[in-house]
Design brief:
The complex is a heterodimer of chains A (295) and B (169). Chain A folds into two domains: 55 residues, no CATH class; 166 residues, Thrombin, subunit H. Helices cover 31% and strands 30% of the residues of chain A. In chain A, a hairpin with a 7-residue loop joins β9 and β10. Chain A is extended, with a radius of gyration of 27 Å. Chain B has one domain. In chain B, 68% of the residues lie in helices and 0% in strands. Chain B contains seven helices and no strands. Classes of the chains: A alpha+beta (295), B mainly alpha (169). At the A-B interface, α2 and α3 of A face α3, α4 and α6 of B.
Chain lengths: 295, 169
């Protein structure tokens, strides 16, 4: 016991150092989303590999029962083929939308019967960074004003980012200039309507990369890239950037890598709009329930 | 002016310089100029080692608070605070530095010694910081370039600081 105490006293500095480093790293992982995601992913790779091996071995022992069940399934599907039935045309029943749009004054008149989808909330940027790997903006509107996490944020000339955290009077926005694994913007080419994803490569604040545009797409430098409207965060046709150059990363790849000049000048963005998608919950609920049914 | 008072002023001054000026300046995507860690480098020789480390933690966490990077700068600061006595030991002449000069400086250590001391610790700080920030080796050359470029920028800033506050004794 005495020796143990002497040992601790002698290496007290080193243990203190370890303790403090562990505290710091714990802070990093608790509070910084990016590091956490990367850590969890890399640990998943190892676990996933193990399960793949395990499954590869187990699979052999179940070949016979797998075959049986597949034959049964084939028989069932054959019975359900269209040719096994007399087709009957059932027709459709269409119903008009009954939601109404009201005027804002005391009269509360009905203006139209379309459903309002987006509400735009203006805000001023009070802090901004563009030099880091993950960049944030702070805006001077918070939950009091109706800002909520995961609202899209656009500037006067194009997309800016997504709201991350909200306090009573302020909100932080993850800028488009964020080099994170899971952070991409659903985008499309305005002219040919080809889909793709816009990410930032961390190199400089005026350019970004558009990925996943198929080789078959017709592209030319100067084309406009806009939001697709599929992400529920942004309405469609908001400018993201303009094509500067494009290339195939190698001959066998099936998708272009496109370099964009960003529409928003992030070094001097002053006023932005947070976009409230009023029908987001409804859409998400519907999509979730569909996904569950398929699964 | 007492040493304690001087260090408190230096702490506040360097942090304000870092947060209000240097973090707002965009030189290049590769260059993040840092000067705040000079506070740790210029702490008195005879300060106990645990105290240096705790001051490093305090400095790092304060900057993290301003930059929304919880723990990143603190980890780098604690690291160089821990290694500081070893580097000083290696660089010190036989019998230690003169006791009349209480803090590391060009006059107390000699120009070349001081330059080596500062460069090594600044480089170590940047290595730890950028490794934690980028958190991966996907692009090692870019990472290395970023570390070296940022270190060079920091050293230039520290040189300017030393020229401004050079005490001839």
């Amino acid at each position: 016991m005495r020796n143990l105490i002497i040992f601790f006293r002698r290496y007290f500095n080193f243990f203190l150092f370890l303790l403090l480093e562990v505290i710091c790293i714990a802070f990093v992982f608790r509070n910084n989303n990016y590091q956490r995601t990367v850590y969890i992913n890399s640990s998943n790779n190892i676990g996933g590999q193990l399960y793949t091996w395990n499954n590869g071995i187990q699979y052999y022992f179940h070949l016979r029962s797998t075959n049986d069940s597949l034959v049964k399934e084939n028989a069932r599907l054959h019975n359900e083929l269209l040719s096994a039935f007399n087709t009957v045309d059932t027709g459709f029943l269409l119903k008009a939308d009954t939601l109404r749009k009201f005027s804002n004054d005391t009269m509360h008149r009905v203006i139209g019967s379309e459903v309002r989808r987006y509400r735009w909330l203006e805000a001023k940027v009070i802090n901004n960074s563009i030099t880091r790997e993950i960049n944030y903006l702070t805006i001077n509107r918070g939950s009091k004003y109706g800002i909520r996490p995961n609202m899209g944020v656009v500037g006067p000339s194009g997309v800016v980012g997504v709201v991350r955290n909200v306090s009573e009077n302020y909100a932080t926005v993850i800028s488009l200039l964020s080099k994170t694994a899971a952070f991409g913007f659903s985008a499309r080419l305005q002219s040919s309507r080809e889909m793709g994803t816009v990410v930032w490569d961390g190199k400089d604040g005026a350019h970004a990369i558009m990925k996943d545009v198929p080789k078959s797409a017709k592209i030319k430098a100067g084309d406009t890239v806009v939001t697709s409207g599929y992400s529920q965060l942004f309405p469609e046709n908001i400018h993201i950037g303009y094509i500067e150059s494009f290339s195939l990363s190698d001959k066998s790849s099936t998708a272009y890598t496109i370099k964009l000049r960003l529409a928003t000048n992030f070094s001097n963005v002053q006023y932005v709009y947070a976009i409230d998608n009023l029908l987001k919950d409804e859409q998400a609920k519907l999509e979730d329930s569909t996904y569950k049914q398929i699964k | 002016m007492s040493v304690l008072f001087k260090n408190i002023i230096r702490f506040v001054l360097l942090l304000m310089l870092q947060v209000l000026v240097l973090n707002q300046v965009l030189i290049h995507q590769l260059v993040n100029p840092y000067i705040y860690m000079l506070f740790i480098l210029l702490l008195p020789f005879n300060l106990p080692r645990p105290a240096v480390q705790l001051l490093g933690l305090l400095l790092g966490l304060t900057l993290d608070m301003f930059m929304d990077t919880m723990g990143l700068h603190a980890a780098a600061c604690v690291f160089i605070a821990y290694l500081r006595p070893f580097i000083l030991n290696v660089l010190s002449p036989q019998g230690g530095f003169e006791v009349t000069q209480k803090t590391p400086s060009i006059t107390s250590m000699g120009t070349s010694q001081f330059a080596i001391y500062v460069s090594i610790l600044v480089l170590l700080h940047n290595i730890v910081y950028f490794l934690l920030e980028v958190f991966g080796f996907a692009n090692p050359f870019y990472l290395l370039l970023k570390m070296l470029a940022s270190t060079a920028a920091s050293l230039v800033l520290i040189l300017i600081y030393e020229l401004l506050f050079f005490a001839r004794k």
